[in-house]
Structure formats: structure tokens, C-alpha cells
What we know:
Elements: H1 13-25, H2 30-90
Amino acid sequence: xxxxxxxxxxxxxxxxxxxxxxxxxxxxxxxxxxxxxxxxxxxxxxxxxxxxxxxxxxxxxxxxxxxxxxxxxxxxxxxxxxxxxxxxxxx
Length: 91
């Protein structure tokens, strides 16, 4: 681990009691518990940010795909009309 820095954190008594209960049952070390909690929160925030970016990308691509589909449909309609006119003239 990189060089550790000592910090002070103020917690409500009820939260500290909850943390101490978990620490007694699991890790036996407040610092380790708080490090793990902070890492989990950071990971969760990074995950949420990636989800948000993906959602924005999908929304932008959805609009682009709609425009491509409309262009393709218009082009297909023109080609179908040309083909139908050709058939009518042949008969």
C-alpha cells in the first residue's frame, strides 16, 4: 500500500457503534474497515458514472440510428416507386 496518511473523521455515535460492532465480528480494525468502505463507495461511484455515460451514448446513438433508418426508408421508398413505375410501363 502507498504511504498511509492519518486523518480525523467525525461520526455520529450511533454510526460508530455500528462500525465497531462489525469490526469486532469481522476485521478487528477500524482503519481497515473504513478503507474497505471507502474503496467500495469509490467503485460504486465509478460504476454509476460508467452507466450514466453508456446511457448517454445509447441515447445519442438511438437518435443517430433513427435518422439513418429514416434516410434508408426514404431511399427504399424512392427505389420501390421507380421499380413499380417500371413494372406498370412494362405491362
